[in-house]
Amino acid sequence: MSDDLITVTRPSLPDLEKLQPLLEGIWKSGRLTNGGPLHETLEAGLCEYLGVEHLSLFTNGTIALVTALQAMRVTGEVITTPYTFAATPHALLWNKLKPVFVDIEPDSFNLDASKIEAAITPETTAILPVHCYGTPANIDEIQRIADLYGLHVIYDAAHAFAVRYRGRSLLEAGDISVLSFHATKVFNTFEGGALILKDKKTKQRVDYLKNFGFANETTVVAPGINGKMNEFQAALGLLQLEKIDSDIRARQSVYRKYREELMGIEGLQLMEEPVDTEWNYSYCPVLVNERFPLSRDDLYSEFRKQGILVRRYFYPLVSDFPMYFDPSAVFENAADTAQRILCLPIYSDLNDEDFGRIMSCLREAANGHHGASGSGQ
């Protein structure tokens, strides 16, 4: 049995032979950041690959989200989901906006569009849905509501790189989509992110905002921030982009192998692949229900004992954090999901031995044998 830690996900290794000349080129050019040639090449390459017209690269996804809210001049209240990563509501607070949480759908884990209208007040100016685990939110109904009430729609699409829905890029939905290129994502630059924008004017405003508000060497047009992606990150991104299709196919293979294996274990429910969707298999979420011998948390502990770093993603709900907590607010579906969810390891180079260790741990737990090392053989 391998003694190595197995993580939930990890970046695929870039081609080191190709990386070295890129890094040497960066150093020789003297352009380490501030929109260098690799940055410009990556922006153009991502636009082409994703099928979008305007894209702006960022140093990370959180700064990209903070900037998106600034670019849309969002004020007051923003409707969003309690079932998300902390960065989603934190970006609202950093913009002095009030998150208004709405429950999720029990199957997609996305914002329940049927509950949005009841949460709208005169202070509401935007909706911030999340494409959870890369599964498309109910974009048609959300847009209908936004148009009816004159609201902006900014999608947290951190998990949704390369996802296509009904034949089109999911990133085209709403006013802006926000991508994360963190090391845990399907496409990554170790740290990084991007905004997908509707028009050239909005891209120009975003590009000013992420560079301290500078329009040129001496003119500042807005109170901007430093959100620029550097040339080293762009180099990593260019190498990742070369093999992203094969990485996604490899993830798909792992996901479907999980599906076959988990069918024989009562009490574990793997999330279904979304319909009408070219998915990216960014995560492998499993629900642990009452028919399984262990609770979700006990199963989590068994994995940890064996060096398998599964994740309760997302737990706890962001609405339970002290800065957002409202004792009168009840999110039944989100709360139930947060207590039962477990994301299993999935990445393009997950080998048969490590996959065997994961399944051995699950089978032993299902059969009431806890704490054994498990060889996966």
From TrEMBL:
UniProt-listed Pfam families: DegT_DnrJ_EryC1
GO molecular function: pyridoxal phosphate binding; transaminase activity
Gene Ontology biological process terms, A to Z: polysaccharide biosynthetic process
Modified residues (N6-(pyridoxal phosphate)lysine): K185
Domain of life from the UniProt record: Bacteria
Active-site residues annotated for this sequence: K185
Keyword Transport: no
Gene3D superfamilies, alphabetized: Type I PLP-dependent aspartate aminotransferase-like (Major domain) (3.40.640.10)
Keywords, comma-separated and alphabetical: Aminotransferase, Pyridoxal phosphate, Transferase
Family to which the UniProt record says this protein belongs: Belongs to the DegT/DnrJ/EryC1 family.
PANTHER family on file: PROTEIN RV3402C, TRANSAMINASE
Protein name (record): Aminotransferase
Organism: Marinobacter fuscus
